[in-house]
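Exercise 7.
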Amino acid sequence: MPTPQELWESYFYPETYDPATTNGTLRNLLGERDGSVLAQLEYGETSDRYAELMRGEVAIARTYDARHLCAIHQHLFQDVYDWAGEYRTVNIFKSTPRGFADVGGGEIDRYMGDVQRLVDGTAWDRLGRDAFAERAAEVFAYLNQAHPFREGNGRASKVFMEHVAEQSPFTLDYARVTPAVWNDASMYSGPDLFTYEPQAASLVPVFYAIAVDRQPGVTLIVDDAVRGRSTLRASYPNAPGVTQLRGDSRSVYYVRNDGAVRGTRNGNAGEGRE
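Solution. The predicted structure, written as tokens, is:
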């Protein structure tokens, strides 16, 4: 049986792996050995897939469980990694002593079971903004702690949360918070050392800020590139967007369910124009 170190190293091209940093370039279907180039190619490959999901062009059963999240991840990363949609085989620690769900103890499935329980046990269509923010934050805290995949958890989770929000009067505009705010809130939501339950309090104001009144028949897709933010973020990225249409500092595209771009909105979320 491979050791944890051997399993960790198996994700990378051997010639790119640095034992000092325990990092390298992930094996990929593009055959790219340069990590910086791979990051750019990955976002290019997943952007269109993300837009397909957000426009509802992909038939994914809304079961709000591990199967649901794996289907999202598989669609997003099918062109980049052969393990798209599959659980990671290694443990991941990121800025927290507790680390994400332990792959050896069934914790991923346990956290995903909690996610499904929370989603199914909520009357989303009856929630106002305050209650929506509290419950969405709790769902995401468990989802984030599960962190089932070796890469791409943030992108898959954001699509999943939009699927959850479909049941409510709100949609999610992740551009309304900065990457730093999103990252910090996600990090602080992790369980304390030697405990199981995530702490969702840090995420409540974030979900309150990104909750936008849903417009029937209209999908909200945010483009990172036109906002000038990094397109190379991996674990807690802003969602990749649609093709760049404008060069201003912040653009949000409203896309009808038939896929046609309806208009852009610049500046604060409350301002708009066709």
